[in-house]
Amino acid sequence: MIASHPLRLFFLILIVFQSCIPNRELVYLQDKPKSNKTGNEQVKEYQAQIQAYKVQHGDILNIKVMGQDPASVQPFNLDGQTSNVQMQMSLSQLYISGYTVDGKGNIQFPLLGDVYVKDKTIPEVSAILAEKIDKYTSNVQVKVKLVSFKVTVLGEVRSPGVHFIYNDRASVLEAIGFAGDLTDVANRHKIKLIRTIDNKVQISTLDLTDRSLIEGNHFFLLPNDVLYVEPMKAKNFRLNLPAISLIISSITTVLVIINLVGK
Fold first, then answer.
1. Best CA proximity match to 98, nearest among 62, 138, 151
2. Last residue of a domain, one of 103, 125, 146
């Protein structure tokens, strides 16, 4: 019976080591760079690749036309709203009252008809509409918002699902924050970014432990991006722990019986 204790201890140590995850596998943006010291702090600047988003097919725009004369701009607002203060609307209402970019890159705008907006930035869309509306009435302000900016985060995160972003841009880290952060068994070296551009699907692999990610082209997300976080091998080991424990117990029992019979 005594002979079985070293075996139990060996398997116990093996399980502990296999289930432990090194700290370096959990820390974001590693690889300490040379820094400029300011007091007790270390400051390092990175040149992020920030590009203005260009409107694509399927995007939904919320557009409000405002002016000094509410009656003159009323025909250019689908919901008849002429107030300079935007109504508080639910997301579903914004989708219903929004302008969808069709396959040709146009939106159907009141009185103006087809207006081509594909590959235009949001400020450019606003300027184009203001210029066209100025032919009918002057001193107008066109407010354009992208209401279809959503990202999907799946895999080893605490709250997987679709998350809507009410901002002009969002980084990979912000999207993970929306999803409640990564789990302890998330593989921070292998984050798949799935992006669709012009009906072509691109799959990139991101390493959240590498600081150079900040300066890459994929640090900031685009609407409809999908992030998939792979699990570490440690997760499979933890899932199999009950079966492993059962096997160890069985082996130990057999050894105990053999030991007793041998006596």
1. 62
2. 146
- Residue 153 in contact with residue 229, Cβ under 8 Å? yes
Which domain-ending residue is among 97, 124, 146? 146
Residue 203's domain spans which residues? 150-234
Longest dimension (CA), the chain: 105
- List 36's β-bridge partners, or say none: 43
The total of other beta-carbon atoms located within 10 Å of residue 57's CB is 15
CA-nearest of 225, 250, 191 to 53 is 225
Residues for the chain: how many in total? 263
pTM here is 0.68
More confident site: 224 or 13: 224
pLDDT digits (tens, 9 = 90+) for 23-63: 455 555 566 555 455 445 566 777 777 788 899 988 999 99
Q: How far is CA 222 from CA 4, 22, 30, 191, 194, in A?
A: 58, 32, 25, 16, 10
